[in-house]
Design brief:
- By secondary structure, this protein is an alpha+beta fold.
- It is built from eight helices and 16 strands.
- Strand 8 and strand 9 form a beta hairpin.
- The relative contact order is 0.15.
- The structure holds 4'-deoxy-4'-aminopyridoxal-5'-phosphate.
- 4'-deoxy-4'-aminopyridoxal-5'-phosphate binds next to helix 6.
- The site of 4'-deoxy-4'-aminopyridoxal-5'-phosphate (PMP) has 14 residues, from helix 6.
Amino acid sequence: MPVSIFLNGEYVDSREKALVPLHEHGLLYGDGVFEGIRAYHGRIFRMKDHMDRLYHSARAIMLEVPYPKEELGEILLETVRRTGLEDAYIRLIVSRGPGDLGIDPRKCPRPAVYIIASAIQLYPKEKLVKGLRCTIASTRRNRPDCLNPQIKTLNYLNNILAKIEAIQSGVDEAIMLNEAGYVAEGAADNIWVVQDGVLCTPPTHVGILEGITRKVLMEMCDEHGIPWREKNMVVHDLIKADEIFLCGTGAELIPVVEIDGRVIGNGHPGPLFQKMLDLFRERTRTDGVPFR
Ligand code: PMP
């Protein structure tokens, strides 16, 4: 599988050569931020949105990205260019960097940047047709006043614990609630719920990552006259829904057909899901910053 890696200042072309110092605070404490980005047809999709979110996440944890945004953008484009791929998944990481033991970030003299560009791993095609079976995780999404889910940090244990619950329950994915019981998001995706022809998604203040795919869907709805709104929802709203789907950079759009044994809608991916997926695919053909 072709891979291109930017290892804090140098480009390497294999995973074996891409070694990170053991005293990296990203590893020791999850002290850092990241982005998951896609390239489609030789273009980095929604690059500005991803760069903006990365710098906002970094600012929130008082981490200075060691490159100006434009320069890091060039490095990102070069890294994906070196894969020779047209379609790729890109992981962009900024960590506190190597330093002595102890959580004090001042122990790390310089933040580090790591980029992995590689082939994409899609959900198996059958899931797009059959849909996902989900569970409502008992692990609640992080409270924004403890660790704001809007910050895309290297601390993903909250989400991983929810994913483990899904695995333990023998289903595909987990849906997370916030501490008050409102629907938040999937373990690594945002959620959309179709109610009487309206696409509904939880507002960011519920405590979710403000997904870029979510934003793209909102834009597409506006352009095509499809009604959408942000809405607080509880589990019963999911059970009553006509359709449910998840969205994210990695998953793109993926339908949900069952939650804790309850069939959603007619148990098959619905027409609004299909419509949004078609529009999204169309958009990925033209939207993005070219790297060739
Ligand atoms: N929520 C969480 C917790 C995520 O990790 C992600 C990204 N995988 C998303 C939502 C979707 O965000 P985006 O569309 O920007 O990839």
